[in-house]
Amino acid sequence: MQANKIAITSAPIAPVLAERWSPRSFKKDYLLTQDEALSILEAARWAPSANNIQPWRFAYISRVDPIHKEISEKGLSGFNQAWAPDASALIVVIAQINLPDGRENTGRHYDAGLAASMILVQAQELGLHTHHIGGIVHGEIAKTLKLDDNHEVLVAIAVGKVAPAEQLQGPAFEREIAPRVRLTLDEIIVHGKP
Hints:
By secondary structure, this protein is of the alpha+beta class. About 35% of the residues lie in helices and about 15% in strands.
C-alpha cells in the first residue's frame, strides 16, 4: 500500500520534481550500482556555487561499508535508527567552514544545500528515492568520519529503492501513507504576484 505521492501543484512542474518524495521504507536487498552512486554524486558536484568555492564534501556510506553500522547506531538519532539503515546508502553532507584565507565562508550552508538538492533530483531521475535526515548526532558522525575542525556535518541523506509502506510500523507507517502537503504559494510569497 502506497499513497499517491505525486505533488498537486498550482502550475506545472517537471515530473522529476512532482514525483519526488521522501520515503522511510527502503528495499533492504537493493544496493546502488556504482554507476548510480557516481551519477548522484556527479550531479552534486555540478551544483551552483558562490564564487565557485564548492564548500561541499560528501561521505558515501554504502550499507556494506564497514562504518555503516557505526554511523547507523551512533550517528542517527531517534526512530531514524529503525528505518534509515535499510536504505542502500547514507550520504553525509559536509561543509568546509573556512575559506582558504581563513575567513569563515558564510554561504557554505546555502551552497551545500544546493548540492544536496541535486542529489535528490538525480536520484529521482534514476528511479531511486531519498530522504534527508536532520535527526543525526553531528559530533558522532564527524568523529567516525575523522573530520577536522574545518568541516561540519550538516545532514545525512538515505538513498535507495522505495519499498512497500507495510515494511514500517506505527507512526512511521502512518507518515509513509499520508498525502503530501505544502503551504500554498500565497502563504510563501511575501511580496509580489506572479
